UniProtKB/TrEMBL annotation, chain A:
Catalysed reaction equations from the record: CO + a quinone + H2O = a quinol + CO2
Functional description taken from the UniProt entry: Catalyzes the oxidation of carbon monoxide to carbon dioxide.
Domain Aldehyde oxidase/xanthine dehydrogenase a/b hammerhead: start-end pairs: 31-140
Protein name: Carbon monoxide dehydrogenase large chain
Enzyme class: oxidoreductase
Coiled-coil annotated residue ranges, if any: none
Keyword Methyltransferase tagged: no
EC numbers for this chain: 1.2.5.3
Molecular function per GO: anaerobic carbon-monoxide dehydrogenase activity; carbon-monoxide oxygenase activity; copper ion binding; iron ion binding; molybdenum ion binding
InterPro entries: Ald_Oxase/Xan_DH_a/b, Ald_Oxase/Xan_DH_a/b_sf, Ald_Oxase/xanthine_DH-like, AldOxase/xan_DH_MoCoBD1, AldOxase/xan_DH_MoCoBD2, AldOxase/xan_DH_Mopterin-bd_sf, CO_Mo_DH_lsu
Co-factor requirement: Mo-molybdopterin cytosine dinucleotide; Cu(+)
Alphabetical keyword list: Copper, Metal-binding, Molybdenum, Oxidoreductase
Automatic annotation (TrEMBL), chain B:
Domain of life: Bacteria
Species this protein is from: Actibacterium pelagium
Name of the protein this chain belongs to: Carbon monoxide dehydrogenase
Record-annotated FAD-binding PCMH-type domain positions: 1-177
SUPFAM superfamilies linked: CO dehydrogenase flavoprotein C-terminal domain-like (SSF55447), FAD-binding/transporter-associated domain-like (SSF56176)
Membrane-spanning residues: none
UniProt keyword list: FAD, Flavoprotein, Oxidoreductase
Any one GO molecular function term: FAD binding
InterPro entries per UniProt: CO_DH_flav_C, CO_DH_flav_C_dom_sf, Diverse_Substr_Oxidored, FAD-bd_PCMH, FAD-bd_PCMH-like_sf, FAD-bd_PCMH_sub1, FAD-bd_PCMH_sub2, Mopterin_DH_FAD-bd
């Protein structure tokens, strides 16, 4: 078999790591044959819909469901009073807080769930929602976290103001936690003694992951066998199973959670929502399946938002520009409940990666979480926990420092990068960066765009502008980001007490094909494609002969799911390790078949060969068959393996991005002329998928930087609740991205891969924002907040006196 | 985003449409492309117990150019406007404007009649029709009548059309001279932050006729007669263009919304109009 093929040809035939394998998922997606939650239709299925609060802060005086119940086709209307006897009117959040499932006496944000209508079809449910009469008594609204910390108005009357919260002491009744990292006194001393200190308030506005598919579920309680099946848009199906079991009291083996195809998650689908609890209760009560799928407005207004961080920063340096210290105080607006999705010990996620790519000897970070009358959330929208915030903060502070020092921002970065020989690098805020080669990446990027040429062109543009020859300014956005992904080591990362390992289970079939099941779940990342490639290389069977399955808790091994770019760093590692177990057993089988000692055979692409006699070999396909048809002394039949992988460390992907932008000072319109993105994600499993992920992440970065926001008025009304006002870029707004790479493998990951799905978002946001800020640097601007939509850019120009 | 229940009618002729309108008055509405009305129904901002679909009604579709007169049936889609060679020759501003409305998917469905009858200050066609000095053709239980586009719009969603009238067509004279439709928007598929429709005629170096209308800068489209007058008789020197812009600024009355504060909108309107005038003049 394959005797005539060369080693290279045999390698190519596998479609393993490093090749641009086409995505196996796309055949069904491009033909409209995906199977999403809303495609699921079970016999007798009922439909749920929410009555939601029109007010941001109000007491619920009364709820009258009579008229709704009288409507033909309405089966039930649930309120907090109905859930209370079951103890389900509140639910725990991932952040150690609790959240109302249905309004228990008051509402804390516009759109909050007040009652759950269950009806025979979706239309009747919507009509019944209109018929539920709720009497509210309006309360003062707090939308500003700084004001909330001063206000007498108590948002969370359910909490004892003197008792500790989940993360220690609370300073005020609207305060949630203080989280401190680093050395406060030492940092303040460094700042006091420094040659130069730059100070800035950097606001990262509230936005939303806005996956194309909104959140939803179908709960189906089989009262005969006591089993609950829950189909849903879950980024972490196993964690959802455990949570459902803990709060409902149904034993975990009686719960089957299935995540079918998921139309994007970006962090929005990590947590648990009232809709899930209400659907489960409704199905238990009625004994038939209940579907709940939120609409676009509900998604934008009520399910998890992202960011809303006010980051006050100070950065100090010597006259020559060597950074000596970094100080950051963040006021974090969490909304009405603390429903952030962060590992338990990290209430502000990995915000302490905010020293970025720089060798900063002394640093201090404090984060204060605050309750306001806004929707809960604070999830990691296409990033590892709060890493976009950290990257945005440091990359803005570097630019502000460059202005303070009157230095070129590219050079300032270069002289402060952590050097290659410093890895593994211990950061002042507690991380051990596994690997990196920032100078190489930076120099390659600057050269690729002819950085000096761009600066010369920009200087000319400033002259032309001042001479009245043009109304367009030119901005050069620079960013060198370092991410921290792949949570994470069980020793310091858990969610609700569940360690953040991940898993893979492989079964090789007799004819040499295979199925591998993982604890993760793809939402568009292409797991079925890339994980098969990892295995193809590890076990020598073609990727096309390997099925990857995820998302069914009855069949998949336990895992913590997909977010924070953790799938490849953690489940990908588990996959490689499980593959190696398969290979170890295959080696013994091959040795038996070849009648030599185990140590006398070695793996060669798709076979084991006798050392020194390559014409004597057994292919993996032959070995697979032998595993099932030969009685081999001392070896069990079959060829299967499971691996649970607890990573020794996070991985630290990095990248160098450069954006060139033209800005019309009169209309505030931006035109991205060029965007160059160099990513180093370690070993590259599928370059085509990496490129796709980079394009997607950059596009979401463009969205956030240039307009995407969840904005509230003073009454707590959401002003951007539809896609007319919430900015989702189309192909028209998106530039042609130039992608590039360097490869610095992770030293601790079995295949050296670091994860890439979120890097472009983490690096992209500051890069676009820096370009806008940079365009105005020559006119005296230090910093202007995102989102850089037309009117805000116009206002910046206007404030600088550029409109004459 | 689930509409309330409604009765659906699909008459074959105008008599059938009018009889439902007369019977149900306020409670009945016609449906054209549905790309303004259906979203409003889904948001339950429009409640329409009786919905009359116009798509099978004869005689409402199509573009004709007869001598100098252009006539566009109400049910003609925005996409058809883009692709009609006769229309492009007779009034190229129509294509330029239609290409800036929404996105291709919306334009395949959305109609000229729906766009002008809707009364949303964000719609592009009303200002364009005012710039073209178009005539709207209406039919109701009392027969047919004509209204000038410049007299049609009263306030947001309030027009001269009675509840029981249907708009059957728009007509206008083919254009001569230079034209431009300039629109600032936040992204593809967005309504205007500011838009300007401009038609200019040049004789020698002098502007002999100018028509200017603005979109989404008041609760109706704004035909700025004064802005046009400021250009006529000039050679469009800087002073004349500035005078036109000032005149336009005197006529618009924008409000603050997610697109920005009033001051910004006025500045954007000036910039967009300046561009449109420059562009139209270069095409004379
Ligand atoms: C995403 C999106 C973006 C858009 N962007 C733009 C844009 O940039 N610019 C723009 O101008 N428009 C825009 N639109 C609106 C679009 O052009 C609509 O198609 C148009 O406003 C209405 O036309 P319609 O045929 O869809 O009318 P419908 O939605 O069917 O009707 C609109 C209203 O007009 C009434 N009506 C319709 N036809 C008649 C008639 N013949 N006689 C009397 N009354 C009638 C209806 O009763 C209804 O009240 C956008 C729409 C969407 C969904």
């Amino acid at each position: 078999m394959n005797k005539e093929l060369s080693r290279e040809e045999r390698t190519d035939a596998l479609g393993g790591m490093g090749c641009k394998r086409k995505r196996v998922e796309d055949a069904r997606f491009t033909q409209g044959k995906g199977n999403y939650v809303d495609d699921i239709k079970l016999p007798g299925m009922l439909h749920g819909d929410f009555v939601r609060s029109p007010y941001a802060h109000a007491r619920v005086v009364s709820i009258n469901t009579d008229a709704a119940m009288a409507l033909d086709g309405v089966i039930a209307v649930l309120t907090a009073a109905d859930l209370a006897p079951l103890g389900l009117h509140w639910m725990p959040t991932l952040a150690g807080d609790k959240q109302m499932v249905l309004a228990d006496g008051k509402v804390l944000f516009q759109g909050q769930e007040v009652a759950f209508v269950v009806a025979k079809d979706r239309y009747i449910a919507a009509d019944a929602v209109e018929l539920v009469e709720v009497e509210y008594e309006e309360l003062p609204v707090l939308t500003d976290p700084f004001a909330a910390l001063e206000s007498d108005v108590v948002l969370r009357e359910d909490l004892d103001p003197t008792a500790d919260g989940a993360h220690g002491p609370r300073k005020h009744h609207n305060h949630i936690f203080t989280w401190e990292v680093g050395e406060k006194d030492a940092t303040e001393q460094v700042l006091d003694e420094a040659d130069v200190v730059a100070e800035e308030m950097v606001y990262y506005h509230r936005t939303h992951p806005c996956p194309l598919e909104t959140c939803g579920c179908v709960a189906s309680m089989d009262k005969v066998n006591g089993k609950l099946t829950l189909h849903g848009t879950f980024q972490a199906p196993h964690a959802i199973r455990t949570v459902v079991s803990l709060i409902s009291g149904i034993e975990e083996h009686n719960i089957r959670v299935i995540s079918p195809d998921i139309g994007g998650g970006f962090g929005n689908k990590v947590g648990a929502y009232p809709g899930y609890v209400c659907s489960v209760v409704a199905s238990i009560v009625t004994g038939v399946p209940v579907k709940w799928v939120e609409d676009r407005m509900e998604n934008l207004m009520t399910t998890a938002f992202a960011r809303d961080y006010w980051m006050k920063g100070k950065i100090s340096a010597t006259k020559e520009g060597k950074i000596t210290g970094l100080w950051c105080h963040t006021t974090a607006d969490h909304g009405g409940f603390d429903a952030c999705a962060d590992p338990t010990k990290f209430p502000a996620g990995f915000m302490n990666i905010c020293t970025g790519s720089y060798d900063i000897p002394t640093a201090y970070l404090a984060v204060d979480g605050v309750y306001t009358n806004k929707a809960p959330g604070g999830v990691s929208y296409r990033c590892s926990f709060r890493v976009t915030e950290a990257a945005y903060f440091i990359e803005r502070m570097i630019e502000v420092l460059a202005i303070e020092l009157n230095m070129d921002a590219a050079e300032l970065r270069r002289i402060n990068f952590i050097r290659k020989d410093q890895f593994p690098y211990q950061s002042a805020l507690g991380w051990e960066y596994d690997s990196g080669d920032y100078h190489t990446a930076w120099d390659k990027a600057l050269k690729a765009v002819d950085y000096d040429g761009l600066r010369a062109e920009q200087a000319q543009r400033v002259e032309d502008f001042k001479a009245g020859k043009t109304r367009k300014l030119m901005g050069i956005g620079l960013t060198h980001f370092t991410e921290i992904v792949g949570a994470g080591p069980v020793k310091n990362c858990d969610i609700l007490g569940l360690g953040m390992f991940d898993s893979c289970e492989i079964r090789i079939h007799p004819t040499g094909s295979a199925i591998a099941r993982l604890g993760t779940i793809s939402q568009g990342q292409g797991h079925a494609t890339t994980f098969a490639q990892i295995l193809a290389t590890e076990i020598g069977l073609p990727a096309d002969s390997i099925t990857i399955e995820e998302g069914d808790t009855d069949t998949a091994p336990y895992g913590l799911g997909t977010y924070g770019s953790r799938s490849t760093p953690v489940a990908g590692a588990a996959t490689a390790m499980a593959g190696r177990k398969i290979r170890a057993k295959a080696q013994m089988i091959a040795a038996y078949l070849l009648e030599v000692h185990d140590d006398d055979v070695e793996f060669d692409v798709d076979r084991f060969v006798v050392k020194g006699a390559p014409e004597k070999f057994k292919t993996m396909k032959e070995i697979a068959f032998a595993a099932y048809n030969q009685a081999i002394p001392g070896i069990e039949p079959g060829l299967e393996a499971v691996s649970y992988y607890d990573p020794p460390n996070m991985t630290y992907p990095f990248g160098a991005y450069i954006c060139v932008m033209d800005i019309d000072v009169d209309t505030g319109e931006t035109d991205i002329r060029r965007f160059y993105a160099l990513d180093d994600c370690g070993t590259r499993i599928n370059p085509m998928i990496i490129e796709g992920q980079v394009h997607g992440g950059l596009t979401e970065a463009l969205a956030v930087a240039l307009g995407q926001e969840i904005a509230y008025d003073d009454m707590g009304n959401v002003k951007t609740g539809t896609l007319m006002d919430f900015f989702l870029p189309t192909a028209w707004e998106v530039p042609n991205y130039e992608t590039d790479h360097t490869v610095t493998p992770s030293p601790h990951h079995p295949i050296g891969a670091k994860g890439v799905g979120e890097s472009p978002h983490v690096g992209g946001v500051p890069c676009f924002s820096n370009a806008v800020n940079d365009a105005f640097r020559a006119f005296g601007l230090r910093h202007t907040h995102m989102p850089h939509d037309h009117w805000r850019i116009w206002k910046t120009a206007n404030d600088l006196g550029l409109h004459g | 985003m689930i509409p309330a229940a409604f009765e659906y009618y699909r008459p074959k002729d105008m008599a059938g449409v009018l009889s439902v309108l007369v019977e149900h008055g306020d409670d009945a509405r016609v449906l054209a492309g549905g790309h303004s009305l259906i979203p409003m129904m889904k948001l339950r901002m429009a409640e329409v117990p009786h919905l009359i679909d116009l798509q099978d009604v004869e005689g409402l579709r199509g573009i004709s150019v007869d001598g100098n007169t252009v006539r566009i049936g109400a049910m003609t889609t925005q996409n058809e406007i883009i692709n009609d060679d006769q229309l492009v020759a007779a009034a190229p501003i129509m294509r330029e404007a239609a290409l800036q409305i929404a996105d291709p998917q919306v334009r395949y469905m959305g109609t000229v009649g729906g766009n002008v009858a809707n009364g949303d200050p964000g719609n592009d066609m009303p200002g364009l029709m005012q710039c073209l000095d178009a005539t709207f053709h209406l039919v109701g239980p009392d027969g047919e009548r004509e209204v000038a586009a410049r007299d049609f719009y009263e306030a947001a969603y309030m027009t001269d059309r009675d509840d029981d009238e249907v708009l059957t067509a728009v007509s206008f004279s083919s254009t001569v001279g230079g034209y431009a439709y300039e629109k600032q928007k936040r992204k593809i598929g967005d309504y205007a932050t500011a838009a300007a429709a401009v038609l200019l005629v040049k004789d020698g170096d002098t502007c002999t006729s100018a028509s200017i209308a603005m979109t989404n800068l008041s609760d109706t489209p704004i035909y700025s007669e004064a802005a046009g007058a400021a250009l006529v008789g000039t050679s469009l020197d800087d002073a004349a263009v500035s005078a036109a812009i000032d005149a336009m600024l005197g006529d618009i009355d924008p409000t603050q919304d997610n697109r920005g504060p009033i001051e910004f909108k006025r500045h954007a309107a000036s910039t967009i109009l300046r561009r449109a005038i420059t562009n139209a003049w270069s095409r004379t």
